[in-house]
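Running log. JK asked me to keep both predictions on one page so they can be read side by side. First protein, sequence followed by its tokens:
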Amino acid sequence: MKLIVLGVLCISLLLLIYVVFRKKLGLGWLTVFGAHLALSAVAIYVVNFTGLAAETYIPLNPMTIGTVMVLGLPGVALLIGLKLTIIGS
């Protein structure tokens, strides 16, 4: 089973590399992705340690950072709302 998973991972990595260089995307998209990743983490950090949302702590993990990366600052509001309504109750 591990061999099959490793094979799928290797094939998908090779296909991803092929698509990146075939479409002439270059490495500029990595800069944009990295900037969004860092700004998402900073936004969650600011909410956690400034007390903007009273008694709310949003953990820094791939799911929360990914949500903020995709949705932007409304994603932070979504996470705070979920924390206060579902988990806080």
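And the second, directly underneath as requested:
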Amino acid sequence: MTDAVLSPIAEPTPIALGEWLPWAVFGGLLALLALYFVGSEQGATSLIKGMYVHEFVHDGRHLLGFPCH
């Protein structure tokens, strides 16, 4: 005989929409902000003076297919 104890199977519980929706919106806004900085932060649409942001995301721009020069 074995001394194994059988435990009940845990059933997944659904997560309410009100719990994950704010996190989904927050994540979407962060993604849009990152897309702006990688895709548009240079020249006339620049929010930050200088070329610091442009140089920081320069390789990512080319990797994602954004032209910059």
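Observation for JK regarding the second prediction: Residues 10 and 60 are 43 Å apart (CA to CA).
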